[in-house]
Structures are given as structure tokens and as C-alpha cells.
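Pinned message: reference record for Cell division protein FtsN
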Amino acid sequence: MDYANRKRPPKRTPPKKSTRGKSQQSTKPAVPWLVVLLAVILVGGFAWLLSAISGRSQQPTPQSVDVPPAQQQPTAQPQKDPLPEQPEEPWDYIEVLENQEVVVDVPERELGPPKLMQCGSFRNKSDAEEMRAMIAMMGLESQIRTTDGGNGVWHRVILGPYESKRDAERDRHKLERGNLHGCQIWNWN
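Predicted structure (C-alpha cells):
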């Protein structure tokens, strides 16, 4: 069936209603007079409230009359009893804790063998130099070590030696923030 070239079906028209015997009613909706009356009352009440509030600020405030110092009579203040002595606390741990010294035994950090981080191993020295330049742009210093093994010559890009693994991890995270992933931390040989 060819949907693109087919004809549209004819429109159906609803049957006409007869108007015989029915009086024509206006098509305007009826105004809800109760809602209009309620809105007018609310607006009027709000206006009255605002005028009542603003009228209070305009009322004159009573002025204090200054009495000359000769006519003022000293007021006798009743003698207050001094405060009673503060009761002694029944607890003695406050003094004990203030004078106590806490001794903590912190073991020395064991440093393992030095660490090195290898970020790449390449057959071509130019590739190793390119990676070394990328590492230098991130603010770290790296070296290229050339090794001749049973499977050919390799150029390794390494960083280190590091005293602890934490120092090596810090530099590795710095390299990862610069989009250089895949660096491995190994013990120094």
C-alpha cells in the first residue's frame, strides 16, 4: 500500500441540532457575584488595615519633661543582700583531668625499600623523550633508562627514587590530573 500517495478520507460532519422549541441562551458565562463581592471586601479590609497602621506612626509621642536637679529627690534603693558563696563542687575529676598527662606510644614509621615509578616503556627513544617532556610540563622530573634485554632494547621513563610510597602516590595523582594514566610504583632494584 502506498501511504504517501493515498487520498485522505472525507471529513465527517456532526449532525445538526435542531433549535426548534429551545430558547436561545446567551453564550456569556455568568459572573460569580459572590466571588466578586468577597474580593472587594478583602481588598477594602486590606486598605483599612494599611491606613490604620500608617496612622499610628503619625500620632505624637509624649515628651518627657526635664525636672531641674534641685527638685529631684534621691531615690532610696533597697540594700540587696550580697550573693551567697558559690557551693563547692562534689566532683574532683575536673582537677584530676586538668593535671593529668596523657602518654601516647607512637611507633616509628617503618620505611621500606625506596620506590620508583615507571610511566612508560618504549622501543623508540623519541617516544620516551616525548613522554618525558609531557611529565616535565606537569612540573616533575623524570629519567630515561635504556635496558637491553632478551627481547630487544627498551627505553623506560621513570621517576624517583622516593623515600616512601606516599610520596610516589602524590606524584602519581599529579600525573593523573594531567591525563597521564598507567604509571606503576615498584620497589627500587
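Pinned by admin. Summary line: Residues 119-187 form a domain with the Alpha-Beta Plaits fold (CATH 3.30.70.1070).
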